[in-house]
Amino acid sequence: LDEKGLVWGFGPLVLGLNKYSHDASVCVVDSDSDAVLYAGAKERLSRRKHDGGGVGEAVDVALSSIGAKIEDVALVVQNNHHHRIAPFERRLPWAVKQGYESADGLHPLNLLEHGHLEKLELSHHLAHAWSAAALCPFDHGLVLVMDGMGDSQRNFKTRDERVDFMTDDALPKADAFKQVPDTFAPFRDYREAETVYRFDDRGPGPMRLELLFKRWTEEKSPSELYNYGFENMESIGAIYSRVSSQTFGDWNACGKVMGLGPWAPTWRKHSSRDERSARSFMSGSLLEGLFKVHWDELNKLEYSNDFKAALREGDDLRKLFYAEVAEAVQDDLEGVCMAAVRDLKNTHGPGEANLCFAGGVALNSVLNGRIQKESQFQRVYIPPFPGDDGVSVGCALYGASVLRGESRPSGRERTVFEPFQGPKYTADDILEAISEYAPWVEVVASYDVEDQEYIEFVADAIANGKVVGWFQGRGEVGPRALGARSILADPRDPEMADFLNVKVKKREVFRPFAPSCLGGEHAAAWFELDEGDSGYPGLQSPYMSITARVLDEKRSLVPSITHIDGTARLQTVPTDAQTGEWSTYRRLLEAFLRITGVPMVLNTSFNLAGEPIVETPFDAVRSFLSMSGYMDFLALQGVVLRVRSFDQVVEENGAVETLAPIRATEFVSELLTTSVGDTLTARVKPVEADKWIELEDEISLALLEVADGDVSIATMGEELELSVEEVAERARALYEDRLVHFGRRAQSG
């Protein structure tokens, strides 16, 4: 990439797509070098978490961000694990007209009906396997794929004369290959649950995969239901998602389940109950075909989707119930999966040192830590995108291998895959975002990103208890903030975790926070790590993939990243990174180490509750301002910002009564009153926004409606028969919601 992030000298491009399901994503790979040029989830651009549907706009961003055009793309490889794409898209125009499907599916860069393009479809588990095997630091090994569900048997058998569909059926099978069940009942459909492959990339030509094991689970409910059919499916990922739905009313909140379970022992003590409730939701050997789901236990669970109410009402017994359910399903997950990995090693890998792990289950960092430490595989690689947002990466890498065919040389160098694959933003982009929000922010300092003074400023701020938003370079691909879009804080502060959960992130107080630690000997001095690694020597967890125990003697020194059970979801940052986002982040950690003697910072994703991680500079500034002043600084690629408070505006103007509010945006309003005229709620929605903003009362709405910059607060008070103080407090709230300002009129961005 050049200094603008544009690619030069690439060969034919391959476009990988995951679309029409949750976590839609796009990846672009150069087929000449197998290099990933762009990878990102649609949610980062649409601002809707786990967004699915069409990917036309995301494809446009992907290509334009690297300076490419659709004419540069030779091959499109795509997956949707609910149904085949080609026949679906032929029916799509009619479905959109009927209102059954979103119109974004008809975007030309989603349908990709350009005459020069060749199209393929790749089955779901194969795409997961390629996303790990093609990027890992070793050229041969085993790949274990576990998720909620993959493609169906029906999909495997559905043929389309226009578009080829590559599935496991085309792979050679090992002599010891086993399928569960070995035969399928008639008139029923089944979905991929767990699959094991062997891969070998040591020779010329495409990487070779061999099928070792495959387990299918019966599809008992249509996969297009609200929960994707997880409610009664018998994959490991589906059972975990069932508990997620039971607890949080969201099948895709499995990370919360993992974080909740460790609270059970503490809450048991507080309840004066010593023994945990005896529950088991799944058990038995996967590879032997003896896996069993204990539906009697699942079906008798009480309090469905009631955890938030238990927290709100302070119901300790219900809280303990949910924590014990989470504890039980996590124990079951670890027990079944660890037994499967040991069986896999004994059956298929006695002489194999390398394992890749992908699929949604590989997002479980507690399980990952055990696999890395206990599996007897010397190197365990988990990509930064093991979930479905990584499917597009697997599709694109498979396509690059196919496109070059036998001309692909052997001995391809495998280096650390850097997960920073989003669009690159220039200094002009940064300044444009700051200008858009100029009435509400103040530039504290401006540096060159490479300036050590910038690094020292941020490190010193964190060491002095400040919370800093960190926006640097290209965004991460995958669900973790790895040093490009992060909220950073001091891990030594015992109050910081609660402060961040309640004030900044506005989420449940039981949620833990992760450390970003310098790798190698630094991490080994603070965390319980063994000789097994991520495949990169001295770099145990570059993608925040594993949970490790904080050493007993260190826990009191870094309480805000130490979970209730003494563990932490660890990211280790390469100490030898000399360029790119990891280099800047490494320098920040080294500066913090010099100041404090601690080689890590607390790192949590930079996003508002319920939103994806920020992508653009505009997202970053908007989120910064929406955190109610609890984030002290925003370090925006060299420019340090802080919130310009209402009190600061008053001080700059001399007197509050002379301030003349100016509407910052056009809006629609809603006033709800009783039959006798009493106001119940008053709210507004800016025309460019999706969310309503609650106002204090109808007077605030009246102030907003007349805020044209010509009427002072004093005059407003006289007309409304209110004191200056009463008007000023409402003006303060409108200013903090960015509905008014007191400087220039806001320019469109």
Name the features:
32% helix; disordered C terminus; 24 helices; ten-stranded mixed β-sheet; single chain; 20% strand
User: What's the overall average pLDDT, rounded?
Assistant: 92
**What share of the residues lie within helices?**
25-40%
Sheet of most strands: 10 strands, mixed
Structural class, please?
alpha/beta
Uncertain ranges: 744-749
Strand order of the largest sheet: 15-24-23-16-17-22-18-21-20-19
Estimate the global geometry from the Cα principal axes: globular
Q: Report the span from N to C terminus.
A: 27 Å
Could you tell me the strand content as a percent range? 15-25%
Radius of gyration: 27 Å
State the assembly state of the protein chains.
single chain
Number of strands: 29
Count of runs of 4 or more consecutive helical residues: 24
Brief characterization of the structure:
The protein has 749 residues and is of the alpha/beta class. The model is unreliable at 744-749 (pLDDT under 50).
Question: What features would you describe in this structure?
Answer:
The structure is a single chain. The chain has about 750 residues and is of the alpha/beta class. Helices cover about 30% and strands about 20% of the residues. It is built from 24 helices and 29 strands. The strands form six sheets. The protein has a ten-stranded mixed beta sheet, with helices on both faces. Strands 3-2-1-4-5-7 form a six-stranded mixed beta sheet, with helices on both faces. The protein has a six-stranded mixed beta sheet with strand order 8-10-9-6-13-14. A hairpin with a 5-residue loop joins strand 26 (about 665-675) and strand 27 (about 680-685). Helix 23 (about 715-720) packs across helix 24 (about 725-735). The longest helix is centred in the middle third of the chain and has 33 residues, at about 315-350. Residues about 745-749 have low confidence and may be disordered.
